[in-house]
Structure prediction request, 106 residues.
Amino acid sequence: KVAPAIREVFERWAMLVLARAKERVHVQTGRLRSSLSRGLDSAPMPTWVSVGTNIQYAVFEEARIGGARGGSHAYLRPAVEETQAELDKLLGGIGEKFAAVWRGSP
Prediction:
């Protein structure tokens, strides 16, 4: 009963982070933004969720390393930070579900 709740929390948070990252990412061609995706552990009790891309220049865009123009174009770190309060709320719901399972109620 707890595993599906954890899966739901991971999925919902990943969707929030993904949406926020897509809002924040610096766009020139749209390739990086359209490549952003999420992944979720397929185990019955998931232990990880990921949001990211396979575009090679993404790390440089996030850190803004090199290039003629300075300044950060960070999008993933801020997306995670900006959705932390929502994650805390979602995890609070998990605690309630875990307590119900522990007590033997549905």
Remarks:
- The chain has a mean pLDDT of 86.
